[in-house]
Amino acid sequence: MEYVTHHGRRTAYRVSEGDGEGPGILFVHGSGGTHAIWKAQARLRDAAPVVSMDLSGHGESDDVDAEPGPEALAAYADDVVAVAEETGATVLCGNSLGGAVVQWVALERDYAARLEGLVLQGTGAKLAVLQDLREWLADDFERAIEFLHGPDRVFHDAPAEYAELSMDAMRRTGRAVVERDFLTCHRFDVRDRVSTIDVPTLAVAGEHDRLTPPRYHEFLASEIPSCERAVIEDAAHLAMIEQPEAFNALLREFLGRVANA
Q: What residues contact residue 122 under an 8 Å CB cut-off, 6+ apart?
């Protein structure tokens, strides 16, 4: 792992370099995750430099003292900008909470002027969280984890060990940070602003995703002027893990279009 220091904290990231000469792409995980969810996307290094990162309080990154909602979202956006500036990445790809964060960068940060593309996977312009889940995150963390790994939420039909790894990752991140993540999602709503995003965008849904269903991505594609939509079959929320070849094929094509724009 490599590190960049900003705003008094260290943010961890990993670079996978190959022969790719396309625009660098930075991958941003969702609630309770780490850079590790993007392991299969390192295969894209023959198309472009690949960077994955840990948001504050996740993986190997220092935590941040931020209240759930806009304050945490802004801090996470600072993490992304710091890593993007350090690595030169000009395409941002975010899953779930990570999708909210990269939208925030595109809408609120000066770095938006350097962006060449966005990939919004398993996310939306609004990310409401069920009240039951919010309550379990507060007082029954294990039940919250089990709920998220129920049918067609995090995974559709992945091997059992995938679910175990994902559940263990949430436990390691810890209840407080995971709750902050989901409450930040719950308070995120840029439906009235996404139409101002002016870079090529790809919205990717998992066919069976019940957490951020395909209709969320239909909205993104209808509102963002240069947004294409794709659905990955036989996948739910973490399509990049369940169907990495299909996901990578979409990104490879998108990166090619961005490079030739």
A: 30, 95, 96, 99, 204, 205, 206, 209, 211, 212, 237, 238, 239
Q: What is the pLDDT averaged over residues 228-256?
A: 97
Q: Which amino acid is at 50?
A: V
Q: What average pLDDT is seen over the chain?
A: 96
The order of strands in the sheet holding 117-121 is 2-6, 9-16, 50-53, 25-28, 91-95, 117-121, 201-206, 227-232
At residue 110, the 3 state secondary structure works out as: helix
To the nearest 10 degrees (0 to 180), the angle between helices 160-173 and 175-186 is 100
> What would the mean pLDDT of 105-126 be, rounded to a whole number?
97
Concatenated DSSP letters of 140-170: -HHHHHHHHTSTTSS-SS--HHHHHHHHHHH
20 pLDDT higher than 80: no
Looking up tokens 């966005």, which residue turns up?
Answer: 118
- Candidates 141, 97, 157, 145; CA nearest to 122 is 97
β-bridge pairing 50-53 and 2-6: unpaired
The model carries a pTM of 0.97
Indicate the SS3 state at residue 4: strand
Instruction: Determine the Cα–Cα distance for residues 98 and 85; give it in Å rounded to an integer.
Output: 17
Q: Are 103 and 111 in contact (CB under 8 A)?
A: no
